[in-house]
Design a protein that fits this description.
240 residues; alpha+beta; four-stranded mixed β-sheet; 4 strands
Length: 240
């Protein structure tokens, strides 16, 4: 999610973690802010229980936000860095296509299959909010920025459905860059990301490996840090 998750994007006083071993915001172009389920208030944890289910909610939350979503947020930074940000639901789909293609490129096919199963199961518990006669993109574009979008089931359906839409795209990461009008990227051969126990602290490891992927490709990308915050509602990226 580029700006907010559900109704809030509150940045609390956190412990700071930075990719690339830096401890100075002046060396960063962007920062990803990601909240921690276990530090959220009971009523906020309950909302995530509605999204992910009440069994193993913490593990599912960390899998989505501190593994998969790291690449999603990073793509927002790339799009903005190259002046290709399009906003609205279209950018959410683009960001998910980037994330899916990146994780495939670095050896996470099995994990993506498990994520797909999880999201399909969760979506089966949501009523489809898109009115008859409207497409997914049309309706979400119409309600973008409204209070309707901030309803738990409506925003959850947007995020999970757009991931599943992205998973249907057969193109590779090079085709993603071409499609958004960014030239010069060639996927590095045989680069594999590490696979870490999925916790909040693993987000920085996945971000470091992601930036190592682009460093090995020789392609210019922004320097991005990551900051853990207490509020699990905070899932966004910001230009510094």
């Amino acid at each position: 999610m580029k700006r907010t998750f559900l109704a809030f994007a509150i940045l609390l006083v956190p412990a700071l973690l930075f990719a690339q071993g830096t401890n100075n915001d002046n060396s960063l172009d962007y920062k990803i802010f990601t909240g921690q389920y276990e530090k959220g208030a009971a009523e906020i944890q309950e909302l995530f229980g509605q999204l992910f289910g009440t069994k193993e909610t913490l593990h599912k939350f960390d899998t989505y936000f501190h593994w998969y979503n790291v690449a999603h947020e990073y793509s927002h930074c790339i799009l903005d860095f190259y002046g290709k940000s399009v906003g609205s639901v279209q950018e959410e789909i683009l960001a998910n296509k980037f994330a899916v293609k990146y994780w495939k490129s670095v050896g996470f096919d099995e994990e993506l299959t498990k994520l797909k199963t999880l999201l399909e199961e969760r979506l089966s518990t949501f009523a489809n909010p898109v009115p008859e006669g409207k497409t997914f993109e049309e309706w979400y574009s119409e309600i973008w920025g409204s209070s309707k979008l901030m309803e738990v089931s409506v925003y959850g359906y947007l995020q999970f459905k757009s991931v599943l839409i992205a998973m249907e795209d057969d193109g590779d990461l090079e085709s993603w860059f071409s499609a958004v009008g960014i030239d010069g990227f060639a996927c590095p051969k045989d680069y594999k990301s590490g696979k870490y126990p999925v916790t909040a602290d693993s987000a920085i490891k996945y971000l470091n490996d992601l930036q190592g992927f682009f460093k090995s490709s020789g392609f210019k990308v922004p320097a991005v840090g990551i900051e853990l915050v207490d509020d699990p509602m905070t899932q966004c990226s910001r230009k510094l």
